[in-house]
Write a structure and sequence with these properties.
Blueprint (H helix, E strand, L loop, with lengths): L2 H6 L6 H12 L12 H8 L7 H12 L9 H11 L6 H12 L3 H15 L3
Helix pairs in contact: 3-4, 6-7
């Protein structure tokens, strides 16, 4: 697909990143190996791809690679940590560290339940 087609499909500013990443995967980027390496190494590997930050890497690892300890952090999660747990994260990494300590190997599963609850019951 062209960047224009990706934008027309709703990718917006992400279109060039999607195209570049697709090319890297087609050239042999080792996506399949992410199943076999630990979470932190898999996250670091994904973060080498264009436009992939911590949240996107965690989403991919949680949803596509069954890394149940991946904890995507966004404004909703920060709000939840503050309102439900009294924890005010100074960074996304601090929020993820709190979740790792609080929820352990299933932090990502906890994130999904917390996020869903917040979207259904908390005001923006």
């Amino acid at each position: 697909m062209t960047i224009g087609q990706l934008r027309a499909a709703g990718a917006g500013y992400r279109a060039p990143y999607i195209r570049q990443t697709a090319a890297l995967v087609a050239q042999g980027f080792p996506l399949g190996s992410l199943y076999d390496i630990d979470y932190k190494d898999a996250k670091a590997c994904l973060r080498t791809l264009p436009g992939v930050g911590a949240k996107v890497a965690d989403c991919v690892l949680l949803y596509a690679f069954s890394k149940k300890n991946a904890f995507p952090v966004d404004r909703w999660i920060k709000k939840i940590l503050r309102e439900f747990y009294g924890f005010v994260p100074k960074s996304d990494a601090a929020a993820a560290a709190f979740a790792e300590e609080k929820f352990g190997a299933y932090a990502g599963i906890a994130q999904q339940y917390l996020f869903h609850y917040a979207r259904m019951h908390m005001a923006e």
